[in-house]
Write a structure and sequence with these properties.
Elements (H helix, E strand, L loop, with lengths): L1 H29 L49 H8 L8 E2 L9 E8 L3 H17 L3 E9 L7 H15 L4 E5 L3 E3 L13 E2 L3 E2 L15 E5 H6 L13 H11 L13 E4 L14 H5 L2 H4 L11 E7 L4 E6 L6
Parallel strand pairs: 2-3, 2-4, 3-11, 7-9
Antiparallel strand pairs: 1-3, 4-8, 5-9, 6-8, 10-11
Helix pairs in contact: 2-3
The structure holds manganese (II) ion.
């Protein structure tokens, strides 16, 4: 019967179409890079993202999808657009992410003091976004860019990052990271602990050993309470060096200790580079470190002064350009 034949034909075409659609979806799913957690979905932009289907449970203490040691390579031609294509689908504007399947343990602002290191930033974003996603953090990336070519002030930029991030969201943990440091083990959690935490303990440049016991430079994490307790960083370290040791002393003078991961988990690869211009070693840094004790309350968050020039939202980060008010002379 022609009618039955037509029905059969229709059924056949429909099932073939369905088959190809499923096949296509399957192939597309296989194209998701291994570096990105397959369970991640783009968060909603509503007030309670991912929580419309009822209350989510807390994320587990140990994130389940960590890989351990990672392969990290900087001799590539990757571009920001490559990184956007890779991790963009999982992010919200401003480099924001939160896990879709559970409530993150901590709300973490990752703060990067910055000037002119776009190539490093590309590598950093390429490696860190997937790591932070696998660590199931509710996080945002803030690049704090010093405007102009006056003397660089890393510590002041980090204070500014703390303030600007808190204006946007109720962060409870602050990770301060140099733009050229990439962890090579994702078990090194970008979270805060009972004491201020130094994360970059084993950097390849220093043959994977801690250069000295009180070091606090590179990558570190302080909770909001810990940061307030030490009045943030000093604003008065202009040029290279000292500001991290000053923070280390603030921590100890306020009765806290430095917590660290072990030397396997805390391994890092540093991007090799020439010394930046307008960031020569600060000749006053040694003398200033003798004055930390007296300066904690007189120099820090409580005396922070700056002007925001521009806040630009990229998919991969929030880029805050600031005038840090470089002193004349
Ligand atoms: Mn460096």
């Amino acid at each position: 019967m022609p009618k039955t034949a037509f029905k059969l034909l229709l059924l056949f075409s429909f099932s073939s179409l369905t088959f190809f659609a499923v096949l296509l979806l399957h192939l597309k799913a296989r194209n998701v890079p291994a570096a990105v957690p397959s369970t991640a979905v783009r968060p909603n932009t509503t007030a309670t993202p991912g929580r419309s289907g009822g209350a989510l449970g807390p994320c587990p203490d140990v994130p389940p999808n960590l890989l351990g040691s990672l392969y990290v390579e900087f001799r590539t031609n990757r571009t920001l657009q490559d990184v956007r294509n890779l991790v963009g689908p999982f992010l919200q504007q401003g480099g924001r992410y939160r896990p879709s399947s559970c409530v993150a343990k901590q709300k973490v602002a990752v703060i990067i003091p910055f000037r002119n290191r776009y190539e490093h930033l590309t590598h950093w974003l390429y490696y860190l976004h997937p790591v932070l996603m696998r660590q199931q953090l509710d996080y945002g990336v803030y690049v704090i860019n010093q405007d102009g070519d006056g003397v660089f002030n890393r510590a002041k930029l980090m204070n500014i990052g703390f303030v600007e991030a808190l204006i946007e969201y109720d962060y409870d943990c602050f990770v301060f990271s140099d733009v050229d440091l990439v962890p090579i083990d994702d078990r090194n959690l970008y979270r805060c602990s009972d004491h201020p935490r130094h994360l970059s303990v084993a950097v390849d440049k220093f043959n994977f050993i801690l250069p000295y016991a009180t070091i606090f430079g590179g990558v570190s994490a302080l909770s909001e309470q810990q940061f307030l307790k030490v009045n943030g960083f000093s604003n008065t370290f202009w040029g290279w060096g000292g500001e991290d040791d000053d923070m280390s002393q603030r921590i100890s003078y306020r009765g806290m200790f430095i917590s660290r991961p072990d030397s396997v988990t805390g391994r890092y690869k540093m991007i090799q580079h020439e010394r930046d211009s307008h960031n020569d070693p600060n000749p006053r840094r040694v003398q200033k470190l003798r004055e930390t004790y007296f300066n904690i309350i007189k120099d820090g968050l409580s005396t922070l002064s700056y002007t925001v020039r521009e806040i630009r939202k990229d998919l991969l980060y929030t880029f805050v350009t600031v005038d840090v008010q470089v002193p004349a002379g």
